[in-house]
Amino acid sequence: MGCSQSKTETISNKSIEQESRPKSIQSCSLTNKQSDRIVEDCIIVWFFNDTSIDIKIEKAKLRHVVSTVKIFTDHDAFINYIINIRIERIFLIIPSTETLVESIQNLPQIEKIYVLHSSFHEIDNTIDVTTSSNMFYDIDNLSQQLETDVELCELDLLIITASASLSNDDTTSTDAKKQEALFLYVQLMREILYRLKFESNAKNEFIKFCRLHYANNFEQICMIDDFEKHYRPQKAIWWLTRQCFVWRILQRMQRTFEIDILYKLGFLLKHAHTQLTNFQENNSFMPENLLIVYRGKTMFNDQFISLIKNNCGGLLSFSNFFTAHTDKEISLNFIRRRLTAFLNTIGILFEIHLNSTIRSTRSPFAALDKVHGDEQIEKDGILFSLSTVFRIDSIKEFTDDLIITIWTVKLSLVADDDQQLLRLVAPLRSNEIHANPLSYVGKLFMEMGQYSYAEQFFIGMLQDTKYPITYYFVPFYAILFLIGTFGNGLVFISILRSYRLRTVTNTYLLNIAVADFLLLLSIPFLIVTILANGWIFGQVLCKMYYNFIHINQYVSSLLLAALSFDRYLAVCRPIQAIEFRTRTKCVLIIAGCWLISVLFLCPTWVFATVTSERYIVWYGYQVQKCVIDFPAIIFTIPPEIVFTYYAFLLGFLFPVSMITTFYVLVLIRLHHIRRKHRSELKERSHRKVTRVVLAVITAYFICWVPLGLFR
């Protein structure tokens, strides 16, 4: 099917944690201390400069809107917290007497800024706030506005994935590959979810998780109690479309790749999908005259071009359950309200055409009034299942009555036998991926360019005791540590005790053993980290840990390159070797190798740090990580890639080139010697020493070349 595009003109030092308990929910159970993990898309950050005023009631009212409310009295802590937020959308509240907006108002994580006056003072004209509607004198009016703004924000956070059409010539570009990887990730999560057989306690595990993360939100705790008592599989869609903790957790999970939440919420999503499928099998699931439904969204222009415009004729998927409306004005009004608040975005109206002849078992949908019956939430809404796939048929630009430019994107539901869809999802159904789907998830993270997610995901798999690989790696590392310590210890003892063995060549080998021993020192830290599910040794040891690992690569590579040069002199330049191969010069060369390696390690020492990422959670609690947090040097290239090439060039390619060059020359020389002096003892001695060194070099190549090429 072709795709047309046209343009037509028409008409604190710490955050204050103070709680209050509303009288209306005194019966709700509170048993846990709330986790620091954020499980919703939106957070409220309030800078409150008057510490003499008790704001328990105000904070409780704000929590009625958004569960996570952070209150700061210290300016620096307030600014630092906002700057470090990367995932959540921030609704910022400041007092009228503070001029804080200028330094932070343009940060992309700021959704909206409100000024809450503590008293009826004259408005401070120094504060640059976009509209007067952002000024408030009481918490009740602010809470009402927040509730509206948060709902609009959450509706606009729907994640879209796309795959280029078969006729697109640009499918090999980096952006196209990342888009296809994200598309496959969303479809794979759906495949895994619907194949899983959830245990009988899945609901209880989800409730336990929710109680931990909503412990201070009394209204949501009451809803969790209600969910625990009254949830049934036949009520899955009702809970999914209700504005409560279920919907908000699901919304965030689809944006942030938090797979642990997907597993906890999976039983409900599977029930909802089954419920939609059952309604679709009934021919009366929607009115006969319903052909087109609408969904509005806003996004930045470059995102629109890359994700939608460049993929016209291709496939598009909404990663979550989502609702579309039969009334076009509902979606248009939503777009207008968002564009008024965010002038640098563009509006997109998805016009979804439903063909009554197409039934998709993988992407069922149903009218909400049929699903909910007497408990309907949106009578005119159509609910689509998780990761429903459409084709982008056309893209048109038009101007509405309010002179606002909006793009209309025509979508049609894709049938189960669509050839492009089958080609894309075929690998997801292979026996290899069925047997080990989580490894493929990590691979998709890498193809998406989400290298930190991939690393953390694989580490998490190792740390999760559900995976038997943990039980193999810990004993393996322990045995490796013992054997390595014993073997390198023998090298130390043999060379240091025997004066005859203190040759130039053995001095190089002794220092290589020292470098190996430093690497061995990192193994106990690794074992404890696996067993403890996190880093427990602090910042300084974190830096030492990474330096122990990487100094082995640099020192060993440089020493082996120097050793190759030493063999080259001994075999190919014996006269010059007499003058050059002295202990003094040997010590200087070795010292130089160590010094250069230390200099190479400067970025590792500077940027290795202990951090806690909210999206890395195993077993229900936050995990500390010892990571190398490289800064962005070239903004178009991820920093991990820059420093990977840095380590590859200096620690692998450069010394390997030297080693290869010198040993090719040595082998050529030995070949000539063998032809001319087959019986000479001296040359046999050279060959014997060279074979020993060559064995060490070969072992190095076997161990380091695969890693170097992979990186």
Describe the 3D structure.
With 711 residues, the chain is of the alpha/beta class. It folds into 3 domains: 42-155, Response regulator (Rossmann fold, 3-Layer(aba) Sandwich), CATH 3.40.50.2300; 160-449, Toxin ADP-ribosyltransferase, Chain A, domain 1, CATH 3.90.176; 463-710, Rhopdopsin 7-helix transmembrane proteins. It has 25 helices and 17 strands. The strands form 4 sheets. Strands 1, 7, 8, 9, 11, 14 and 15 form a 7-stranded mixed β-sheet that branches. It has a 5-stranded parallel β-sheet with strand order 3-2-4-5-6. Helix 3 (101-104) links the parallel strand 4 (89-94) and strand 5. Helix 5 packs antiparallel against helix 16, helix 6 (202-213) packs across helix 10 (259-281) and helix 20 crosses helix 21.
Descriptors:
711 residues, alpha/beta, Rossmann fold, Toxin ADP-ribosyltransferase, Chain A, domain 1, Rhopdopsin 7-helix transmembrane proteins, five-stranded parallel sheet, 17 strands, elongated
Quickly count the domains: 3
- What coarse outline follows from CA principal-axis ratios? elongated
Query: Per CATH, which architecture of the largest domain?
Result: Alpha-Beta Complex
Total count of strands: 17
- State the secondary-structure class: alpha/beta
Give me the number of helical elements.
25
**Assigned CATH class of the largest domain:** Alpha Beta
The CATH superfamily of the largest domain bears the name: Toxin ADP-ribosyltransferase, Chain A, domain 1
- Give the averaged pLDDT, no decimals: 77
CATH topology of the largest domain: Toxin ADP-ribosyltransferase, Chain A, domain 1
Using only C-alpha atoms, the radius of gyration works out to 32 Å
Q: Give the helix level as a range of percent.
A: 40-55%
Largest sheet: 7 strands, mixed
State which percent range the strand residues make up: 5-15%
Residue stretches low in confidence (pLDDT < 50, at least 5 long) are: 6-27, 120-132, 613-622
Termini separation comes to 41 Å
- Please, what is the oligomeric state? single chain
